[in-house]
Design a protein that fits this description.
Rossmann fold, 465 residues, 16 strands, binds magnesium ion, five-stranded parallel β-sheet, binds adenosine-5'-triphosphate, 47% helix, Helicase, Ruva Protein, domain 3, alpha/beta, 4 domains
């Protein structure tokens, strides 16, 4: 049987030309015009190769990649990137993409890439050298933290897994790890070998919700030329993750209520009831009690959902975890980027501990990734942190201006220059005026420090001319 390739791209032209070129090489090709359609197809077909555009209309190719790794772990993944997508490509490779092709590519190059990547992956499998890029664990070990409140969460996850509960509600501010916990609930359970299917309730229009979730029979609409499985059916045996449930519309809420009650539905236009065995995990950062009071959310649905609920603590409430996580993230990013180990100084940790972290763990993780990517130092000092983080501690603020007596003059100068550049938001003419030096001297100094503004912006900085 010929190898199957799934092309997920929202541009019709790309789909057609790739299909033709790959079919000529003997591949059996399916295409999908959106992330959503692609994942559904992948869940059913488990293709040998998936070619995924990093920029899709309805989602990021990175999200698709991540979900693909769960839905069909043996599929070889090739990303299509555009010029300037470097960060996304790095991220894609970290997430386990097998290769990428940059636009504009020629068709021969793409066909070669598909053939070679598939071949290489088969050889690795055959010789058992760890196989293809290992699928990252999604289990409890990914939920980092040593505070009592996060230990309680891990314990609750274990209990929920053991209980086999059918419905779980996860609450918490943005970035607190709701999706991480949902994935852990799945991969720690006996459902792990079945799909984890994420439904973003805020992204599906209410009028399409029923057909997305439950599918439709052939001929139900004028353009329904084939029967399509809904996401609930794709998730059979596994977990259906209803993300952003607080944003589900009235129609969606009504459909979910009956589905959650009996785990049974009919495809649109269908005559038979279909039973599925799925664990439903719902998550939101909204206050659902408030949403019920204001009439936005059905209280009968909330009662169904919250039989077992977990509220994730904000990062501010997790004592000791800010420093612990920051150090772990720095370690992780240094390893990933093959940089020599970096650590965070006491003063930097103090800055991080005093900040309020409205974006929670996501914000902390992103801040640490930025520092590791941009700075070359053994010890991350307050001046390496963004002004927002530095500004939250009185010590950090002082460190921008005043030296401790035992510090060399050059360090103090560098810190002062960084601070002025930060405060003038990168306007070098103003910064040079304030510092009383010429603009060129300022640029030379920034270059000698390897300041990110020079490293990153020099080629496009209009006022360099
Ligand atoms: N305890 C944790 N340990 C390690 N990483 C974490 C932890 N909590 C969150 N993260 C990381 O923070 C980022 C955000 O997590 P996640 O997407 O699960 O948040 P969320 O609660 O679903 O946020 P939102 O409400 O915005 O969707 C992810 O990169 C995740 O891996
Ligand atoms: Mg989320």
């Amino acid at each position: 049987m010929s190898d199957q390739v799934l092309v997920i791209d929202d541009e019709a032209g790309v789909r057609t030309t790739l299909r033709r070129a790959l079919e000529e090489e003997g591949f059996c090709v399916a295409t999908a015009d959106s992330a959503h359609a692609g994942l559904r197809r992948a869940g059913v077909d488990r293709p040998d190769v998936a070619v995924v555009d990093l920029k899709l209309g309805d989602a990021s190719g990175l999200d698709v990649l991540r979900d693909l790794k769960v839905l069909s772990p043996t599929t070889v993944t090739i990303m299509i990137s555009a010029y300037g997508d470097v960060q996304d490509v790095v991220q894609a490779m970290k997430l386990g993409a097998d290769d990428y092709v940059q636009k504009p590519y020629d068709l021969d190059e793409m066909v070669r890439c598909v053939t070679q990547t598939l071949h290489a992956s088969r050889i690795r499998e055959q010789f058992g050298k760890g196989g293809r890029a290992t699928v990252q664990s999604d289990g409890l070990d990914r939920i980092l933290g040593e505070s009592e409140s996060i230990e309680d969460i891990r314990e609750t996850v274990r209990k929920v897994v053991r209980s086999g509960a059918q419905t779980v509600l996860i609450l918490g501010e943005t970035g607190t790890g709701k999706e991480l916990v949902a994935r852990a609930l799945h991969s720690e359970s006996s459902r792990a070998k079945h799909p984890f299917v994420k439904v973003n309730c805020s992204a599906i229009p209410d009028s399409l919700f029923e057909s997305e979730l439950f599918g439709h029979e052939r001929g139900t609409f004028t353009d329904a030329q084939e029967t399509r499985l809904g996401l609930a059916e794709v998730a059979n045996g596994g977990t259906l993750f209803l993300d952003e449930i607080g944003d589900a519309g009235a129609g969606a809420q009504a459909k979910l209520l009956t589905f959650i009650e009996d785990h049974r539905f009919r495809r649109l236009g269908g005559r038979e009831d279909i039973d599925v065995d799925v664990r439903i995990v719902a998550a939101t950062n909204k206050d659902l009690d408030e949403a019920c009071d204001s009439g936005e959310f059905r209280s009968d649905l909330l009662h169904r959902l919250k039989v077992i609920s977990l509220t994730l603590p904000s990062l501010r409430e997790r004592e000791g975890d800010i420093s612990h996580l920051a150090l772990r993230f720095v370690e992780e990013f240094c390893a990933q980027t093959a940089k020599p180990a970096m650590t965070l100084s006491e003063e930097s940790l103090e800055c991080l501990e005093s900040y309020s972290w409205p974006g929670n763990v996501r914000e902390l993780r992103n801040a640490m990734e930025r520092v590791v990517l941009l700075e070359e130092c053994d010890s991350i000092e307050p001046e390496h942190l963004s002004q927002k983080l530095r500004g939250s501690s009185s010590l950090g603020r002082a460190r921008g201006l005043v030296s401790r007596s035992a510090r060399p003059l050059a360090d103090v100068e560098r810190e002062h220059i960084y601070r002025v550049v930060d405060e003038t938001e990168g306007n070098r003419t103003r910064a040079a005026d304030i510092l009383g030096i010429t603009r060129q001297t300022l640029i030379n100094k920034l270059k000698s420090y390897g300041h990110p503004s020079v490293v990153e912006r020099e080629p496009v900085d209009a006022d360099t001319a």
